[in-house]
Amino acid sequence: IKKVTADKSKLVFCHNDLNLSNIIYAEKIYFIDWDYAGLNHPYYDIATLLNALDLSQDEVKYFLNSYTGTHNAIDLDALDSFKKLVLYVEYLWIVVTASKEDEKYRDRYLELKKWLQ
């Protein structure tokens, strides 16, 4: 993560919370709830989407090809690091903001906690 985030010139405007409840599809795709939007590495939003969608390898290649024109334009090792970072941020969000005792978040909290161990 340090390596890919060291170059601040790569920061772009990101949504920073592209979970499925913030995406609306109605003939077009709309992103809502921009509370956490700001500058970030472009892989952050991509990693968030890929984690949320739980795609197969072929579907990931198709997604990246559609996004960049070629899946080879993305550093897959760096993207994998960002996918892990997104999971860690989600874990921290549940611990700090939500209640890990809340039924809505309990299972996800336990799943993320197990993954982090």
TrEMBL record:
Instruction: Indicate what this protein is called per its UniProt record.
Output: Choline kinase
State the organism named in the record: SAR86 cluster bacterium
